[in-house]
Design a protein that fits this description.
Its EC number is 5.3.1.1. The structure is a single chain. The chain has helices at 19-32, 46-56, 82-88, 98-103, 108-120, 133-137, 141-152, 182-200, 202-205, 221-225, 242-253; strands spanning 8-12, 39-43, 61-65, 92-95, 124-129, 164-168, 210-213, 232-235. By secondary structure, the protein is of the alpha/beta class. The protein has an eight-stranded parallel beta barrel, surrounded by five helices. The radius of gyration is 17 Å and the shape is globular. 45% of the residues are buried. Bound molecules: 2-phosphoglycolic acid (PGA).
Amino acid sequence: MENNRKTIIAGNWKMNKTTTEAVELIDALIPAVADAQCEVVICTPFTALATAVEKTRGTNIHVGAQNVHFEQSGAFTGEISAEMLVDLGVEYVITGHSERRQYFAETDETVNKRTLAALNAGLKVLVCVGENLEQREQGVTEELVRLQTKIALQGVTKEQLPQVVIAYEPVWAIGTGKTATSDQAQEVCGCIRQLLGELYGEDTAQTVTIQYGGSMNPANAEELLGKPDVDGGLIGGASLKADAFASIVAAASR
Ligand code: PGA
């Protein structure tokens, strides 16, 4: 599909890979994705970020974190600020991942605060939204995803929007091996773009990268990425193996 949007394939390693293992994976990834015609991002655990930044310098692999706190500094034991990530050389951060929402009491409001803090510090943000199975069965997917997206972007200016990627991740498809059909992915990604048009104008909405995430793998990537409003993928399980991740990158490069 002809458009000027950047295709972005991002790996979300979640709580996997020691720094030693990260080095091995990155060593295997560097040659495997060197010819990519899309943007390649790896979101590693905090502990592997410095090493990942170091190892990927001069390559086409960009590094992201999986979370960021919204305050600049202070008494927030266990948290990491946007400035700390920027100082390390980190370029991207994920906000609002469903696992943060589900297990760590993340709300639409805190997702918004983290997104704003990250953008204000100069990070690019992958904002995750998506419905769970119950919500899909209740037929509220579109309303819910619109609401999540709208709240996540409160206060984000039109000038900041180029630094934002929206990742549509149906919770029922994450880590379950159950992928949304390409039509389901397109339907929701299209509705996110429509909302972006209402909020920022149609021309701006057409420039925003919208990813699909949820059991994307080498076998289904091409079909999902072939949909007009699916501009990339956020990949969990399949990002932990260099060959699988590289196959998805190759599918996105076609
Ligand atoms: P999955 O995870 O590819 O393992 O389903 C995707 C994600 O949670 O970002």
